[in-house]
Amino acid sequence: MRLKGRNAVNSYQYISIFLALFIVTFFVSFIIGRYPIDIISLLRIFLSRLFPMSKTWNCTIEAIIFQIRLPRILGAALVGASLSISGAVYQGMFKNPLVSPDILGASAGAAFGASLAIYLSLNTIGIQLSAFIFGVVGVMMVYLISLRINEDPLISLVIIGILVGSIFTSFTSLIKYLADTKDKLPSITFWLMGSLSSIKLRDIKAIFLPIAMGIGPLYALRWKLNILSLGEDEAKTMGLDTGKIRAIVIICSTLLTATSVSISGVIGWIGLVIPNLSRILVGPDYRILLPVSILLGGSYLLLVDNIARSIITVEIPLGILTSLIGAPFFVFLLLNRGS
Amino acid sequence: MLEVKGLTCGYDRKMVLKDVNFTVNPGDMVYILGANGSGKSTLIKSIVGLLRPYDGSISINGRPIDGWSWRERAKVISYIPQTFNAAFQYRCKDIVLMGRTPYLDFMSSPSKEDKEIAEQAMKTLDILHLRDRIYSQLSGGERQLVKIAQALVQESKIIVMDEPTNNLDFGNRMIMLKHLRKCTDFGIAIIMATHFLEHAFLYATKALLVKRGKVREVDRPDSRPKRR
């Protein structure tokens, strides 16, 4: 059945469907929140930025839309897209659908790097850089250990990731232990749980370039990712310079993970859930999988963030919600692997 | 076309074969025969470049391929491993299309012409009906044919196969051999490892006997006319 449906719809149509989903989610997210904003005034306010229009709304609404909701919504979309594209390419590179930035130790490494930078009172760029360096260290450790283990590569990679992740988590705990309890400890702790609530427009400006630098090359290499996912020997004998592609994949996807972690903390599971869900929907071909993962990842985190800020009066940290959805999904994948 | 001279090869710390010499000409069907563990796969991996030889040279049309990039190699030699499992559920047409990779620029995807070449290769091997099937769900024989189509699409002059008939029943082995035979008619040379001796008598133009670290080149007996 699924195959038939897949033939009937071509890749462009798929991408348009997910693009439409993303755009709808994006705009609906502006309406959701404690302060009610109706869709008509939302549209009028947006259009007023493009065309001159008489002002029929009050300034509070405009301030909420542009100062509070816009940065947060852009943040959710960018972080969701980044985490899911990096999950998608890690899975191809490691030939393993069970890995993701958080399982591979990239997130834990980046979280340690960022905590360290916060502890040392570095600025935004310092936090991003430190998160990136330790993220790459984390992934490289997992990759190099995995090359030496030949048994059940699917599961052993997950275990190595957990080991490396726990090393970084210990270091992060050490930093929390050493941090000033009045000021730095709460900020590190709250940030580690994953939240988009404190995002400002200037944070978005700071992450935009690294995210574009991460997504661009991966998107251009999307066909080569198919070849890489066949395995080392096959890819080489099909003419792929695997060393070069692997280096680009590790650098770009870790840059995406680290950038996300540096502004929103550790939001787990997206990099696992979204690429796999996309693969179930549109198949494994990266030419379609990559754009669909980006759009679906953005929509997904927007949706989760909408729930986080509206379901109860206090805001729920995002990491909690994504784990509650992600962990059962991982069990589902384990039970269905091979079929 | 392919010339192997004084090749000594093996794994990191273990030398397996010593002083191997043979040549392969266009349209040849070369069988590598030998017991399990005799070094057939080692020889194959050295030919395709996955193992770096200790000593000796491998040249194609007189040019040693030692320093070639993977991309340059892939245009001349394609490799079909013993087992090939795609971790993800690719469709056959995409697996075949992947053979076009050495002809693509670093950041580009296959074009319409590439797709037509892939389609043509599937037609040649009578597997066009498999194009939308999922590769990992095919039978062993069908998978081998898809991999051969991929090698054709790669437009290499030499196809190297490691035990391609191992998991196939008699009927499928014959179908595969028939198609390989068709490839040699296009001037492609096939090199394959096997322990099915009887096939060597059917189609081989040359055999390499691997035993105790040595390889002996045996030409086809002249008494048997080349089958057409």
List keywords for this structure.
heterodimer, A: mainly alpha, ABC transporter involved in vitamin B12 uptake, BtuC, 15 helices, disordered N terminus, B: 228 residues, alpha/beta, Rossmann fold, 4-stranded antiparallel β-sheet, 7 helices, 32% helix
Structure description:
The complex is a heterodimer of chains A (339) and B (228). Helices cover 77% and strands 0% of the residues of chain A. Chain A is mainly alpha-helical and 339 residues long. Mean pLDDT of chain A is 89; it is low at 1-8. Chain B is of the alpha/beta class and 228 residues long. Chain B has a single domain, classed as P-loop containing nucleotide triphosphate hydrolases (Rossmann fold, 3-Layer(aba) Sandwich). In chain B, a hairpin with a 2-residue loop joins strand 1 (2-11) and strand 2. In chain B, helix 4 crosses helix 5 and helix 5 (140-153) packs parallel to helix 6 (170-185). The A-B interface holds A 3, 7, 92, 95-97, 217, 220-224, 226-227, 229-231, 233-234, 236-242, 279, 283-285, 287 and B 48-50, 69-75, 77-79, 81, 84, 86-91, 94, 98-99, 101-102, 104, 106-110, 132, 134, 154.
Concise summary:
With 339 residues, chain A is an all-alpha fold. Chain A has 15 helices and no strands.
- Described by the principal axes of the CA atoms, the overall outline of chain A is globular
- Briefly, what CATH class of chain A? Mainly Alpha
Write out the CATH superfamily name of chain A: ABC transporter involved in vitamin B12 uptake, BtuC
Q: Can you write the helix and strand succession of chain A as a string?
A: HHHHHHHHHHHHHHH
Beta-strand portion of chain B reads 25-35%
Q: For this structure, what is the CATH homologous superfamily of chain B?
A: P-loop containing nucleotide triphosphate hydrolases
Q: Kindly, what is the distance between the CA atoms of the first and last residues of chain A, rounded to a whole number of angstroms?
A: 16 Å
Q: What's the helix count of chain B?
A: 7
Cα-atom Rg of chain B, whole angstroms? 17 Å
How is the biggest beta sheet of chain A arranged? none
